[in-house]
Specification:
globular, two-stranded antiparallel sheet, 259 residues, 5-stranded parallel beta sheet
Length: 259
């Protein structure tokens, strides 16, 4: 592929970070061609999926019940109607750092995420093309070598702590939901989850909460609530909210199909 073709592809398919150095606007940075070759396949087949599908963002603090709400909503629809994508899957890869150094990184800051890749993947799914989503290894504090193949669907749900912070990512969501849960309940849920499911020690969970989770929640997560279309108390445990949201999403799907 010629250099001119690569530059054309970079302008069409890469949404660069606003104030970062990974890629420069227009895709003219040294890594642009490599980035395109890695994440863009011009021969990937287009599936017969309508381009008017919905992208729903679900945000909230760590342990607020975002994932539970996402799963409860998915249960209200058919198997092929909804795809779930975790923002955590797009933590940046840090193979250059030893495990001890990766443990010290701030995973609750917006810069911890590869939002350019997530934006590109959402655009691909929106266009009817399948993606290979990264898989994050929490116990190793790094992206694994595995991927999750995700096919397009009428509804795409992205859930995480910070999807409403990046303007470029937030702008892709057709409907934005913020899960609001008391801080004491969130920390208890986080301790149980990280110790039982993610192989963390109790001391490491508490230390991370005090040094990064709590201050980053106050600095970024909580302020992003103003970008939400609706605020849901207690996440997936709020059965009334789940039913109302499922009904509203169904209405949005029908409206999009008519449109």
């Amino acid at each position: 592929m010629s250099e001119d073709s690569l530059q054309a592809l970079s302008k069409r398919h890469i949404l660069c970070y606003d104030k970062r150095e990974e890629l420069l606007p227009g895709g003219n940075s040294p890594g642009a061609a490599e980035y395109i070759q890695t994440y863009y396949n011009p021969f990937r087949p287009v599936f017969p999926q309508k381009p008017n599908n919905l992208i729903i963002g679900i945000a909230g603090g760590s342990g607020s019940g975002k994932t539970t709400l996402s799963l409860r909503l998915k249960e209200r629809f058919g198997e092929d109607e909804v795809r779930l994508i975790s923002h955590d899957s797009y933590y940046k890869r840090h193979d250059e750092l030893p495990f001890e150094e990766r443990c010290k990184l701030n995973y609750d800051h917006p810069d911890a995420f590869d939002n350019a890749l997530l934006i590109y993947h959402l655009q691909e799914l929106k266009a009817g093309r399948a993606i290979d989503c990264p898989v994050y290894d929490y116990s190793n504090h790094n992206r694994s070598n595995e991927v999750q193949h995700i096919e397009p669907a009428p509804v795409l749900i992205v859930e995480g702590i910070l999807p409403f912070v990046e303007p470029e990512l937030c702008a892709l969501f057709d409907y934005k939901i913020f899960v609001d849960t008391d801080a004491d309940e969130r920390i208890l849920r986080r301790i149980l989850r990280d110790v039982k499911e993610r192989g963390r020690s109790l001391d490491s969970v508490i230390d991370q909460y005090l040094t990064t989770v709590k201050p980053m929640h106050e600095a970024f997560v909580e302020p992003s609530k103003r970008n939400a279309d609706i605020i849901v108390p207690n996440g997936g445990e709020n059965s009334t909210a789940v039913e109302m949201l499922a009904h509203h999403i169904r209405t949005l799907i029908e409206k999009a199909n008519r449109g």
